Structure prediction request, 243 residues.
Amino acid sequence: MSAKPQLYAMLALAALVLVALLSRGHSSSDSSSSRLGSGGKIIYNPDAPTYVLPAQALDSSRIPFANHSTAKPFQSYLQQTLDFAHFKDLFESINATVGTLQSRGEAHVTVITPPEFDRVLGPAGVTIEEIEAIALRSDIQKARLVPVCLGRFVGKLPNPVSDDDSGDFAVYSLVVADSYDELTNIRREVFKLFRKKGGQGALFQPEGFWPHVTIGFDRRDLFVEDGLYKGSNFCYAPIRVSK
Ligand SMILES: *[C@@H]1O[C@H](CO)[C@@H](O)[C@H](O)[C@H]1NC(C)=O
Ligand SMILES: *[C@@H]1O[C@H](CO)[C@@H](O)[C@H](O)[C@H]1NC(C)=O
Prediction:
């Protein structure tokens, strides 16, 4: 008589476990969304407004490739260049409430960072010209970017290394997804070259890449070296794409 409710409870538990297992299997099968940084599930700040981005903002196919190959520390890197004109309103609508933000007056997605080049790729004998040749062959300016959200960091750095790093910072970026792996594939080609030249695999992670467009910051931009991971984990507010 008392065994029946127990049986029902066990069946219900088994069903719950099954549902949980099935949904886990589903989300982990999508490798590009898991690379976004939060298992594909975006968590917005409850009080964040929705920001607007013009539909053409992420189409850079008609913008010329810009090389960044100055032979000076942290002046060699690879980027997909975007048209800042399409990001100006977004910057202004954020700064309208923040009020302390600066803008670089240009927009881009960094594909190989200055520290990756200076500390890892360059010392292994990979030249910035070789990286640019890979990017041009891969039509970097035609890479398709998908908007994810507006990312925000406000607060203290987790690991300040100098007095300049103390106190609060604010950084806003548009998080984008390399959903077609076009930028990641450039990084994979660079990795092949790096390995061919004897580079240690552990030092360069082609998929260790969080594409974003820096929109504004108060003191300086912040990077993965500062402890910021700019995947969908970075999301603060939704982005609506307008016509
Ligand atoms: C890099 O850009 C400069 C102009 O900004 C140009 O003079 C130079 O030829 C370019 N180099 C390559 C390898 O495309
Ligand atoms: C951001 O907003 C402040 C306050 O309105 C303004 O003084 C400043 O010029 C703005 N920044 C830019 C880059 O427009």
